[in-house]
Amino acid sequence: GITTNGLTLERKLPALIDAGLTHVNLSLDTLQDDKFTDITRRKGLKRVLSSIESCVSYLSPPTAPEKVGRVKVNCVVMQHFNTNELRDFVELTKDMNLDVRFIEWMPFSDNGWNDGKFMSYQDMLRAITSDNTPLLSANADLASTLEAAPSLPMVASLQNVPPLPLERISDGPNDTTKWYRVPGYQGRVGFITSMSEHFCGTCNRLRITADGGLKVCLFGGDELSLRDVLRYTDTDDNYSVTDDDLELLIGMAVRKKKAALGGHGDMYGIAKANDNRPMTLIGG
Description:
Layout (H helix, E strand, L loop, with lengths): L1 E3 L4 H10 L5 E4 L5 H8 L4 H15 L11 E7 L8 H6 L7 E6 L16 H9 L5 E2 L3 H9 L17 E3 L9 E4 L6 E5 L14 E2 L4 E3 L8 E2 H6 L1 E2 L4 E2 L2 H13 L11 H7 L5 H4 L2
C-alpha cells in the first residue's frame, strides 16, 4: 500500500496496480478549493477527488471482496478549520466503497498544536449526528457520554447535508480505528481517537522512517537506527550484522516501548515534551 496526497496518483495508478498495489491511504483535510490551496500551497483538489474515485473503481468496487483492497481518506480534524465539513466527508461514503477516517489532531514538533483547535472523537460524533439524530451505538457508555455532552454551536456541513445516523460496526482486535457506517451507505466512517481514547494496549504498529529509524511508538522520541545497524561492519573481526542480531535488537526496542503515548501521559504531555519528529519526517 501507499500513503499519498493524491495529486498525481490518477495517471500513475494503472502502473502501480500492475506492480501489485492493493491499498491506498489518501490525506485530505478539506473539500473546499480555497482551504485546500491555502494548506497545500497549490491547486489540485479536483485532481485529488478524481484520484479517489479512480482508486475505488480499481481497488474497491462495491462488488469486490474485502481482500481485494481498501481505499482510505484520512482527514485530520481541527476546530475552526474543517469541522464544518464533517458530514460532507461522510457523504463521500454514500456511493463509494470508501473508508473516511477522521483523525484527532495530535501534537508533533512544529505543527502548532494547541487544545483550542482540538476536536475530540465524541464531539465529532455529536456534530455528525446532532439535532436529535439517533446514534445507533453498541457502546452504552459512549451513548450516555454523548447525551451528557453539550451541543456544539457549529455547522457540520457546507453542502447542506443534514444530520446523519451512524451505526457502530466491528473493529479488528488490533485496529487503530473505531468504525461506523451510515445505514444504506456503501463505505465506512472511522475515528482515530489517539488523544481522547487511546488504544495503546492493543496497538501492534511499528514504523520505519525513510532514513531507517525504527519507531515502536508514534508518540515516542526514541528510535533505533536500523540503517546504522545494517551498515555496521567490524573490519578487525571481519564481522557483519546478521539476521539474528537484527531480531535481537528489534525485540529489545519493542520490549522498551512505553505503556501508552510514548510515556507522556496525555496530549498535553506530548506537546510539552516536544521530543519527536514532525509527522512529515515520520511518514505513514
